[in-house]
Design a protein that fits this description.
Length: 463
């Protein structure tokens, strides 16, 4: 390994790829406001919105009132329970119990659905937040809120703010990578976009349906130009840019583009290693599973281990208006083994302690059946629910073995220790070492921040 390292160092020096041959990258590591608990983030985004009452938020009352109309139950329940907020007033249709059993796990006694038997082994490492709520129950705006903090205007994503504040630990890879089946989402790249932050803060979307390197990263190799010749071209471009910048300083967009070319050039060697899953031992690949979700999570671990600051993994298909139970069985089965593997792998490598994992969607599902377009329904489903849903965190300073907050007795509304999306973002920034009110960027005459003018650190979920 030592001889090989010397060989690569010599090669990179000859090609002009060594760090000292290039100007200081804007992605160079930066020091946060205070000592961070998390150095990197893996966000697993369940597009469509998982059902909290079928996964991490058990509601025995749904069993008791199953099949009854929500408005009727609201009257009877309030008569029996007084003025306890039940959240039923905003629901329509029949109450629908969960088809899945919950049981307690770990020393914490955390209740987790039978849908996650392998993940449940990590109950004492999870921090489950059951009192999330958000602004809207429409998919695309809610996804933007969860990933950028805003839906009415284009704002930088959480990952972009993270890279802006911390830089990256590897100058030969992007600081922020988004792993999506098609390399994009319904809202394009807004969910990992940099908006008005410098271009080097933006995420790089990587399609993951085909694990072949050339399919994930198009044109990773030039078919016509050698590395040495590319280096000469980039040096010329940099010299031209520096000359232009002396006469027209402050062009952040152009500087970002030049930096992007430099990163793309360096990726030709680094990405070949980081994205090649065959370099992993067979038992590790088998632990994750040879599925798209398994490969995504293994790749996420390889990327953060290689120094990428923020990795976003998209797991699509959670919009269960039809066949809620059947689809949750399939979706959770696809995620369960890879989630177990990811937490196990990070822990064995001793990097779970400073790697923050976040799992969840843009909102949750209703505790009633979805009665929309009944004639065309394939089976019982659940509608969107922005009033109360669940996310969980692990590692990176999140308080382990914790269940925080609560929805009402039916799982409709967050009612105890409510956590709004800006609060979640403020807490993530805190774990990364930032005062969310001070991590700002001047744009259009105003100091912007991820949490806008909202948000507070949820101390109950910080270890």
């Amino acid at each position: 390994m030592g001889i090989g390292g010397l060989g690569i160092a010599t090669l990179m020096q000859e090609l002009g790829m060594a760090a000292e041959s290039a100007p200081l990258s804007p992605l160079a590591p930066k020091t946060p406001h205070f000592a961070p608990k998390a150095k990197r983030v893996i966000q697993i985004f369940c597009t469509g919105g998982p059902s909290q009452v079928d996964t991490f938020d058990p509601k025995p009352m749904l069993e008791k009132y199953h099949g009854r109309m929500a408005d009727e139950v609201m009257k009877d329940y309030q008569k029996a329970a007084g003025d306890v907020a039940s959240g039923m007033g905003r629901l329509s249709g029949k109450l629908q119990r969960s088809a899945f059993k919950f049981s307690k796990h770990g020393q914490s006694g955390m209740e987790i659905s039978e849908l996650f038997p392998m993940l449940a082994k990590h109950a004492d490492e999870l921090c489950v937040v059951r009192s999330m709520h958000t602004k809207t129950s429409v998919h695309e705006p809610a996804q933007l809120v969860m990933n950028t903090g805003e839906f009415a205007s284009v704002r930088p994503s959480v990952g972009s703010w993270t890279v802006y504040g911390l830089g990256s630990e590897n100058q030969n890879l992007p600081g922020f990578v988004a792993l999506s089946p098609n390399g994009t989402t319904a809202s394009g790249d807004k969910q990992w976009g940099n908006a008005f932050l410098p271009a080097w803060c933006g995420g790089t979307g990587i399609p993951t349906q085909d694990p072949t390197l050339s399919k994930m990263i198009e044109n990773i190799r030039s078919g016509t130009t050698s590395l040495r010749e590319q280096r000469r071209q980039l040096d010329l471009m940099r010299a031209m840019h520096d000359d232009f910048a002396q006469r027209h300083p402050g062009d952040a967009l152009l500087e970002g583009r030049v930096s992007a070319f430099e990163t793309a050039f360096r990726m030709q060697i680094e990405a070949t290693n980081a994205f090649d899953l065959t370099r992993e031992p067979l038992h590790i690949r088998e632990m994750y599973g040879d599925t798209e979700q398994g490969r995504q999570f293994l790749l996420a671990r390889r990327l953060v281990e290689s120094g990428v600051r923020f990795v976003q993994v998209f797991h699509n298909g959670w919009d269960t208006h039809d066949l809620n139970d059947e689809r949750h069985r399939d979706l959770c089965k696809a995620a369960d083994q890879p989630l177990h593997a990811l937490l196990t792998d990070l822990k064995q490598r001793d990097i779970l302690k400073d790697t923050l994992i976040l799992w969840g969607g843009e909102f949750g599902r209703t505790p009633t059946s979805d009665n929309n377009d009944v004639a065309k329904k394939k089976g019982i489903g659940r509608d969107h629910n922005a009033g109360g849903f669940t996310v969980w965190m692990a590692g990176g300073g999140a308080k382990p073995g914790t269940v925080f907050g609560a929805t009402d007795d039916f799982g409709a509304l967050a009612v105890q220790e409510k956590v709004e999306v800006h609060d979640l973002h403020a807490t993530m920034m805190h774990l990364l070492g930032f005062d969310h009110e001070k991590l700002t960027y001047r744009y259009a005459g105003r100091d912007f921040r991820l949490t806008d003018v909202y948000g507070h650190v949820v101390k109950g979920i910080v270890a």
